[in-house]
Amino acid sequence: MSTPPQLSATLQSFETGNGRPGRFYSLPALEKAGVGPVSRLPVSLRLVLESVLRNCDGKKVTEHNVRVLANWQPNAERTEEIPFIVARIVLQDFTGVPLLVDLAAMRSAVARLGKNPKIIEPLVPVDLVVDHSVQVDVNGSADAFGRNLEIEFQRNRERYQFLKWGMQAFDTFKVVPPGIGIVHQVNLEYLAKGVLSADSTFNSQPSTVYYPDTLVGTDSHTTMINGLGIVGWGVGGIEAEAGMLGQPVYFLTPDVVGVHLTGVLQEGVTATDLALTVTQMLRKAKVVGKFVEFFGPGAAALPVVDRATIANMAPEYGATMGFFPIDGECLNYLRATGRSEEHCRAYENYYKAQGLWGVPRKGDISYSQELELDLGTVLPSVAGPKRPQDRIELPKLKESFVSTFSKPVTENGFGMKPEELGRTFLVSGDGQIADGGGSQEPVSAQKAQLQNTNPQTEAEMANNHPTPDHTTARRRTFKSEIRNGSVLIAAITSCTNTSNPSVMLAAGLLARKAVERGLKVDPVVKASLAPGSRVVSDYLSRTGLQPYLDQLGFNLVGYGCTTCIGNSGPLAAVVEEAVVKNNVVAAAVLSGNRNFEARIHQNIKANFLMSPPLVVAFALAGRVDIDLAHEPLGEGKDGQPVWLKDIWPSLGEIRDLMQTALQPDVFRKLYKDFAAQNPKWNEIPSSTGNVYEWDGNSTYIQEPPFFGSFSMQPGEIREIRGARPLAMFGDSVTTDHISPAGSIKKTSPAGKYLMEHGVEPADFNSYGSRRGNDRVMTRGTFANVRIKNLMVPGVEGGVTRFQPGGEQMSIYDAAIKYQQAGTPLVVLAGQEYGTGSSRDWAAKGTNLLGVKAVVAQSFERIHRSNLVGMGVLPLQFKEGIPQCGTQSLKLDGTETYDVIGLGPNLMPQQDLTLRITRRDGKVENVPVRCRIDTPIEIDYYQHGGILPFVLRQLVAKA
Ligand code: SF4
Questions:
Q1: How far is CA 905 from the centre of its chain?
Q2: Angle at 414 between CA 408 and CA 415, to 5 degrees
Q3: How far is the CA of 158 from the centre of ligand 1 (A)?
Q4: Please, are residues 82 and 55 in contact by the beta-carbon 8 Å criterion?
Q5: Which of 459, 871, 888, 918 could staple 882 via S-S, CB 3.0–4.6 A?
Q6: CA angle in degrees (0–180, nearest 5) for 221-226-229
Q7: Nearest to 765 by CA among 488, 702, 797, 773
Q8: CA-to-CA separations, 537 to 43, 272, 511, 546, in angstroms, rounded
Q9: How does DSSP classify residue 187?
Q10: What's the pLDDT at 853?
Q11: What is the pLDDT of residues 463-521, one digit of tens each?
């Protein structure tokens, strides 16, 4: 690395506190050198600036980049991109497996070129936590954890074998195996260091350079780490791969919104209530794409675990980050979670030397905008039933549910008739409760009955409910009444809350008091407890609270995402059938962060986010249409009503137990040799070698074709001629429409492919778990059952018309026919194309279907960059051109398209022409803007994407 001379003076020394000096790139020295008013910058931006300064080599990162960021103005127009080289990368398994597949494919390509495959090696540490694959197949029993883990290993064996190959093949790639925890909680409790160091030489003497811990992750809630003063956010897999291989992550210089916190939380109010309040407030403030930084005395007084709960929900309030500065609370947390004393001293001294110690006060920093929140005004809350920003004060939940029930769907309601609200249905049986893997085979022994107590619709159900194929069904007799508003899932889940001992202990305390008063949870409620680390089980057991949770059905089901990601597993068959048959608006209550329709469970429509103790409370109540201020939770064993306030734990009770929760020795013990403590993981055989031996028969892992015909010579940028539209979409097509993560239909091209390869529908698993197989994923592209292609009006799902002729067929089949005919393809879309979670397969699948350009009215930021990263050209209709398919352009998909003006001298944001030739031969030229936005992106596009670009650079250097 060669730092420009003017900046090299910023490399200075500081006392680590451990008897030897450390070196660091000093931000105060940068300011002193007159480069910019650095000390007025938001803390989060200063941490990014340190990376830009330290990595300034005049090529990837230039002195200009340093100067621009050092002179950030709170309210300037945002045109400059920041090249950010992060210190490390975290992955979860859904996104991490395909990423490892790409790295393995690059190694295969390098080997085919006769070079050393080891040149493909992550340049920064990469940690993958396997957390997204566990499902709640079994719940409510002492063996639920072990059995769910067993089923998880059966379902995912091939993926796990592949991960083990990756662990031995790459020096800097580590895996936290299944059954240990959730990526963001493991990051907070173990992976994050706060400050990092690297050996270096200075004046020919060995020295150690210290620098801030920064990261990107392939999961949107990576922001949870912002609660510990660490800069990091979620990116797509393609960006993460590029980051691993030494490319900066590029992002537009952001606005930074300061949120001034004052006051303290009142008795009875939890960190979850605060996070939901902040989410609602910041959604309204429109912080999308901005950094949010919390400051002021209220922020300083919050412990790190509460800060992390708020930071976790940054994607829900729309911010890139929800950042808390670095201070003594961070240090306390690092100590309490078992980080070494030597490390903690270096951490404190480093940030003091950087002038970054302490939570800023009002006036210290120039923010783009300042907002105020008095923590004393926060009230107990829930959010839902469909969006995390729709906060409801607890006493108003009943009223809110009743009104949402009959509100039109267009107003976020359920569109039901008010008179249906009170209908009840009796479900009874000795069928299995939420147990097993979901085969479609009948249960011969099941004697389930379903009675509708409404005489007009009384029905008896056939005995053809799903039963487990992986486990023996566990039977429990139950007889319950369900109705609109019944709670059918109650899940203590999600790193958002399970990383916070105050709310987890509150749940345990509430459970204890409920059991002591004789309250019970109806067995029709599928209760579960899925903490984000084993530390939670340790303190729930040491405080004696777990047995009370067990008695209410909140037995441990796994250490992973479970219900939060929709892996809630099946409901009891009779219950699910009653819900579907009678269109019941049933409810889930969970301590998660997202509740979009069908995310939690496909047949549960009303999903409410809330704190863990409230999850237990609503499980006890059994319904959400209850006003807990005026109605009791139930009747105690003494026949007396038990109210929520009777069993709600006090702040004092929680505080008394908190000391038990954060024990450094426990963290050290549980995060030591966790792989060795996991016999199932150790039993998985692993292949060895630097190059992966692809198994052509695997339905999970296949070598993707991205580097199949790789050569060192990139192609030329040329005009696109004679393209046909593969599909035409309206506004707000999400990445989940483009590349769904959920279940695979038997009749879909992916389902047919799997069956042709001997996979039974019961073992399809999800698209998310099949992302290591491009054959499944390409067939799954645009295969969401809800996607609406305007070329086939009135039909939902991944179908199109093959032109000319207009034959209706699946999008995949049409793409193959076009490929065989050598016809390039385009996709046309409306506004906000590619919104939703960053999903690299949405761009990869588009590329593999043969789509050369996507023409839209506007693009979501990450998806646009992912398209370029995969060599697909994003084109934007210039302002004033209405959406395709409307009166103005009158497109119906029978046209052919040329992109004129594309050539070797292509410039970022260049104006181009989309030439449309209609069926009758009429030609129209429509102006479009090329949304390749930066010079580096031109390189990526020319090379056919980021990965071939990086690969050519690495091979050229080898
Ligand atoms: S628990 Fe939920 S928020 Fe946390 S990583 Fe898993 S899916 Fe994401």
A1: 38
A2: 45
A3: 23
A4: no
A5: 888
A6: 165
A7: 773
A8: 35, 20, 15, 8
A9: I
A10: 98
A11: 222 333 333 334 467 788 999 999 999 999 999 999 999 999 999 999 999 999 999 99
Q: Cα separations (Å) of 19 from 16, 24, 25, 241? A: 7, 16, 20, 38
Structure tokens at 731: 């506004």
The pTM (predicted TM-score) of the whole model is 0.89
The alpha carbon of 565 and the centre of ligand 1 are apart by a number of angstroms equal to 6
184 lines ligand 1 (CB under 6 A): yes
Residue 189 DSSP code:
I
Q: Answer whether 93 contacts ligand 1 (Cβ < 6 A).
A: no
Instruction: Please tell me if the CB atom of residue 183 comes closer than 6 angstroms to any atom of ligand 1.
Output: yes
DSSP 126: E
Helix 341-353 / helix 328-336 crossing angle, nearest 10 deg: 160
Parts of the chain with a pLDDT under 70: 1-6, 430-476, 880-887
Per-residue pLDDT, 289: 85
Euclidean distance between CA atoms 591 and 63, whole angstroms: 46
164 in Cβ contact with 175 (< 8 Å): yes
| H or E stretch covering 900 | strand 896-900
Q: Give the E-state strand segments of 277-423 in sequence order.
A: 291-295, 321-323, 369-374, 381-383, 391-393
Task: Give every CB contact of residue 79 below 8 A, 6+ residues apart in sequence.
Answer: 252, 253
> CA–CA distance from 877 to each of 730, 858, 912 (Å)?
14, 8, 10
Task: Identify which of 363, 956, 422 has the alpha carbon closest to the alpha carbon of residue 713.
Answer: 956
In total, the chain counts a number of residues equal to 958
Residue 152 has φ and ψ, to the nearest 5°, of -60, -45
Helices (H), 697-783: 735-738, 749-756, 774-779
Any atom of ligand 1 within 6 Å of the Cβ of 565: yes
- Under 8 Å between Cβ of 680 and 753: no
Give the DSSP H or E segment for 490.
strand 487-492
SS3 559: coil
Using CA atoms, how far residue 650 sits from 149, 233, 270, 360, 588, in Å, is 35, 34, 11, 31, 26
Nearest to 381 by CA among 272, 308, 281: 272
**Residue 141 CA to chain centroid, in angstroms?**
29
List Cα–Cα distances, 179 to 128, 147, 556, in angstroms: 13, 12, 11
List the alpha helices (DSSP H) in 180-259: 183-186, 237-244
List the end-to-end C-alpha distance of the chain, in Å, as a whole number: 18
DSSP state of 228: G
Query: Which atom of ligand 1 lies closest to the CA of 493?
Result: 1
| Cα angle, residue 774 at apex, residues 770 and 778 outer, rounded to 5° | 100
For residue 92, report the distance from its CA to the centre of ligand 1, in Å: 9
pLDDT digits (tens, 9 = 90+) for 885-894: 445 788 999 9
The secondary structure of 875-892, three-state, reads: EEECCCCCCCCCCCCCCC
Closest CA to 855 of 847, 864, 842: 864
HEC profile of 619-638:
HHHCECCCCCCCCCCEECCC
Is there an atom of ligand 1 within 6 Å of 741 CB? no
Task: Output the CA 930–ligand 1 centroid distance in Å.
Answer: 35
Cβ partners under 8 Å of residue 913, min gap 6: 899, 900, 901, 925, 926, 927, 928
SS3 665: helix
Whether the CA torsion 36, 41, 46, 48 is positive or negative: it is negative
Distance of CA 416 to the CA centre of its chain: 32
What angle (nearest 5°) sits at the alpha carbon of residue 612, between those of residues 276 and 215?
60
Q: Nearest-5° angle of CA 328, CA 333, CA 338?
A: 130
